Amino acid sequence: xxxxxxxxxxxxxxxxxxxxxxxxxxxxxxxGRTILSNVVSSQIETHQQFGGVVPExxxxxxxxxxxxxxxxxxRESGVAMTDLSAIAVTQGPGLVxxxxxxxxxxxxxxxxxxxxxxxxxxxxxHIYANALVHELEYPAMALVVSGxxxxxxxxxxxxxxxxxxxxxxDAVGEAYDKVARALGMPYPGGPHVDRMAHEAKTALPLPRxxxxxxxxxxxxxxxxxxxxxxxxxxxxxxLPLDPAExxxxxxxxxxxxxxxxxxxxxxxxxxxxxxxxxxxxxxxxLRESLAPRCEAAGIPLLAPPIGLCTDNAAMIGAxxxxxxxxxxxxxLDLKAEPLxxxxxxxxx
Length: 348
Ligand code: KG4
Ligand code: ZN
What we know:
The protein has 348 residues and is an alpha/beta fold. It has 11 helices and 10 strands. The protein has a 5-stranded mixed beta sheet with strand order 3-2-1-4-5, with helices on both faces. A 5-stranded mixed beta sheet has the order 8-7-6-9-10, with helices on both faces. Strand 7 and strand 8 form a beta hairpin. Helix 4 packs across helix 10, helix 5 runs parallel beside helix 7 and helix 6 packs across helix 8.
């Protein structure tokens, strides 16, 4: 494998670790762009029986898998441990017990290999998953849609973030998971609702939460309650209700609001690209709603391949490279920050 960079500088190999929720992942990324390895151990089966992620169980599972994942990522990359340039790790946001496992492993490696430690914001990772497959242009607007976050983020320059809108209640992925649960589908429900929505011929009419006319904020709890009310009423009155119609109605409402606000934000801030980021970026309905609107408006729509939308360490390596380039290393007493701020993490 040829590992010299185009400008002749020696390549940067970042070993990245991601354990913020229920996936244990490790990856080796070259120069912030090329994935040499990216392994993920999912805990979904364990948490499915509880209908959601149980934090204590998640931490224990990370402890069981972390060494195996790191060893596999390094082995698959073909890079010797001693050739690694830096160790990157998700510092937050996420579940504190889960974050700690990754943090301790990353610190131990950084110390023993005597290479810098890089802290990464999980959402910066989701946004920079796009940089693994696309050339980014600034300013860019990111539509972040994950299990824990729904935000419109202006990316002013590489690694410089400004949040211009956020959810006032549920994250969109969370709403997907709750609706899926009410429809009797397993956790995580997003992909199931997405699939069902495409099977429906008609959509259950549901509200859209636009909020104030100039607001870039979101709200999904009212929509979620409307879905639950429709399901309960049908049950009580013994009326037929097609779950696929419910899924389609929900998905259309979510997609329409996300699309309108994202396009308005791109235009208002003169963004050169719209970046989709987070687990819900895998949603077909959302992509189908955004694509024609972006095309008509001449806005390049970028999205990671499906496999890089949900949590993975490759995206953490991509974001870490921004800090590597600026020499912004983390101290070995770095703390896990369950509520880490994206703007505060920005590259200076
Ligand atoms: O980004 P992610 O892997 O984890 C967090 O950082 O939260 O996102 C997980 C979320 C879950 O809520 C899951 O249901 C949702 O992403 N999701 C989807 C789809 N694939 C994953 N939601 C809608 N449609 C999908 N195809
Ligand atoms: Zn995530």
